[in-house]
Design a protein that fits this description.
By secondary structure, this protein is of the alpha+beta class. The protein has four helices and seven strands, in the order ββαββαβββαα. 27% of the residues are buried. It comes from Methylibium petroleiphilum (strain ATCC BAA-1232 / LMG 22953 / PM1).
Length: 124
């Protein structure tokens, strides 16, 4: 895949949690997501072969590289269900996690929400 000679930064929002991060057009959505430093984010092979980073692009535009048909079939691709390790944002995008990624992000959100409702958090 050709390298973007003039990478630009775009906002990637995770629909599941409302979190957002900057991701430039020369890096994959997964690389940007990993920068958030959340525990348990499945990064797998980072090359499109394992399928653990599957997301649905709810809005926005991206360019993509080849993904394994074992994990992203033609119907998936038509519905913008792709692998985060294989897409590069070319505008602001909103993604929704699917499969292992969804479990990981929801677990992190549930832990954060639980921590915010503890008596100690209420005193803060």
């Amino acid at each position: 895949m050709p390298v973007d000679p003039c990478p630009s930064s775009h906002r990637v929002t995770i629909a599941d949690t409302g979190e957002a991060y900057a991701c430039n057009s020369a890096e994959t959505v997964l690389v940007g997501l990993a920068r958030l430093g959340k525990r348990g984010i499945p990064v797998g092979c980072r090359g499109g072969g394992c399928g653990v980073c599957k997301v649905e692009v709810v809005s926005g535009q991206y360019r993509k590289r080849v993904m394994s048909r074992n994990h992203v079939n033609a119907d998936d691709e038509a519905c913008h269900r792709v692998l985060a390790c294989c897409i590069y944002p070319i505008s602001d995008v909103v993604v929704r996690a699917i499969g292992p990624m969804q479990k990981s992000l929801n677990r992190g959100s549930a832990a954060a929400a639980s921590a915010a409702t503890t008596p100690e958090a209420a005193k803060a």
